[in-house]
Amino acid sequence: MPSDIPEQLLRPHAPRVSTTTPPVQIIVDDLSAPRIATLLGEHLAEMQANSPACSMHALDLEALRAPGITFWSVSDATDLLGCGALRQLDPTHGEIKSMRTAAAHTGRGVAAHLLDHIITTARARGYRRLSLETGASDFYGPAQRLYARNGFERCAPFADYTDDPHSVYMTRTL
């Protein structure tokens, strides 16, 4: 006697295992917490170790407080997971700055989650283009791949950047 229930629903299946992780919170950050200063200090030190001084475009704590820059931190219940910023270049063009995942949290999707938040914010602001500069050495390969997976393509220098063999410029339309 035929059943109206599809065969795949009649097969036994393993119980679902919960993959719930603690909630992650992205907040606009005022850059005053010591843990932010520590994470950004690590970011700057790593950039200095992997880029010539004349090719290092990372912003320090004070520069990230400038008008036209929004800075976010990403945290769970106990840890600072990462950070990133969006700088307005003009009313239709934004630049991603200071993307950083804390060393203990790399490979967990923190950067991808924050990048999605930044892209969503840029669209909400009416930006038509979002760009970034990152390093050209192998050290920066994971960042380049993250951005490429999210629709960014290599481009010519933008804003005040100039041709630099140690930099990769990427952009995407929104």
Give an overview in words.
The protein has about 170 residues and is of the alpha+beta class. The protein has 5 helices and 7 strands, in the order H-E-H-H-E-E-E-H-E-H-E-E. Strands 1-2-3-4-5-7-6 form a 7-stranded mixed β-sheet, with helices on both faces. The longest helix is centred in the N-terminal third of the chain and has 17 residues, at about 35-50. The radius of gyration is 20 Å and the shape is globular. About 25% of the residues are buried. Residues about 1-20 have low confidence and may be disordered.
Largest sheet: 7 strands, mixed
Q: How many helices does DSSP assign?
A: 5
Class based on secondary structure composition and strand pairing: alpha+beta
Gap between N and C termini? 55 Å
Low-confidence stretches: 1-20
Note the run of SSEs as H and E: HEHHEEEHEHEE
The overall strand count is: 7
Assign an overall shape.
globular
What is Rg?
Answer: 20 Å
Instruction: Give average pLDDT, whole number.
Output: 87
The largest beta-sheet arranges its strands as 1-2-3-4-5-7-6
Helix content: 25-40%
* Strand portion: 25-35%
